[in-house]
Amino acid sequence: MPFGTSVVVDVLRSSSTIIQALSNGARTVIPFSNIQNALRFRPSIPRRSSLLVGERNGITPRGFNYNISPFDMSKENVSGKIILYSSTNLTRVLGKLKRRNNTIIGGIVNAKATAEFLQSEDNDVTIIACGTLQGPTVEDLAGAGAIASSLLSEDLSDDALIAIGLYRNPSWRTLVKRGRITKRLLHLGFMRDVDFCLQPNTCHIVPGMRGSRIVNLTQRA
Q: What is the dihedral of CA 150, 154, 157, 159, to 10 degrees?
């Protein structure tokens, strides 16, 4: 393959929320790095067919239907819907990637499925732990480690080895819960979301970019 695959990891909470939306029947997820662009786009599709899902620093933007809680991505809420999605970190990172069709979304909840998908593609892999504008976050490094540890590869970078070491630490969940993002979510009342996002390998879906949209790449025809 001429180009590698990028895996974008945003453990708290975008990866899990997008995975949950697609798992429960959402037609597609369209990412927007800018909230206003998402709001302007919505009138271009039937209102009953779409949902605005997003947050900025954990707060639901005005005019949006839901925050990015995976618990809001139920079948009753999202089945058959187009999700217009904007978040603080994941959509910012996606907006900077040039070869988006070679981009998938991974997390702790689908780490094994992501690794298996990557192995089937037989491609060079770059795992991007989103972090924030302020720097790396412990949960995204742990998520990168969860995926990397499932790859049957001897050719790993030092960064990958560090991430694997974190994830294989028996206290990795405790470390994540001491991190600044978890503390912020706890303050906002989203501790149940944190617990959900830290459950390894609960989902087999691998979301990926196709054009400007995120779809389920493991969906069978």
A: 40
What distance, in Å, lies between the first and last C-alpha atoms of the chain? 24
How do strand 5-9 and strand 103-106 relate by DSSP bridges? parallel
CA 136 to chain centre: 15
pLDDT tens-place string over residues 79-115: 999 999 999 999 999 999 877 789 999 999 999 999 9
Query: SS3 sequence, the chain?
Result: CCCCEEEEECCCCHHHHHHHHHHCCCCEEEECCCHHHHHHHHHHCCHHHEEEEECECCECCCCCCECCCHHHCCHHHHCCCEEEEECCCHHHHHHHCCCHHHEEEECCCCHHHHHHHHHHHCCCEEEEECCECCECCHHHHHHHHHHHCCCCCCCCCHHHHHHHHHHCCCCHHHHHHCCHHHHHHHHHCCHHHHHHHCCCCCCCCCEEEECCEEEECCCCC
Structural domains of the chain, with CATH: 5-211 (3.90.1560.10)
In this prediction the pTM is 0.95
Residue 111 to residue 205: CA distance in whole angstroms:
10
